[in-house]
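Hi U.,

Before I forget, here's the chain from the pilot set. I'm dumping it here mostly so it's searchable later in email.
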Amino acid sequence: MIHLKLSLVLMVTSLVATQVPAPQASATSPRPSFAGVWAPVEPARADAYFDNGLSMVPGGGRLVIEQRPDRLTVTGEIPDDILDRLLTIQKKHRPTTIYRIVSATGRSGGAGASGVQDNSSWQGDRLVFWETTPTRSYSLAFSLDGDRLKLEMHSVVGPGKESTLALLFSRVK
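Structure:
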């Protein structure tokens, strides 16, 4: 019995090991790649958004983005002095958000095993993620504006209570 279990584990391990990892979107890809390290173009505006909980990073921070065909990982790097203040107040900080990207053909079944509905779509060259609850809806769109990353945040919290904010980021070399 132990030999059978070990053989099964080795077979599954070899199958997983031989799969080719998904590549980053390339310049020839039909979809833009947002991967890279990005700094706010307008640090004062980024500071104001960050102070009000509307941005992952303040003006002196960086966004680090990894992109695969099925997900986008966004990590906000915050300067130590600001992070120390956050940790004093909140005792913790979660800098990374991972977004699932639904393929162009979509996935069957709608909700996954967790019961969460897939809420992303490519709208032209914009990658849009959204969340809707009974009291509000929120979307975050990633796009390129020339050589800059553009993040647009749109929220609706009731009739007539709608806002759209945008931040531009330049690539850090």
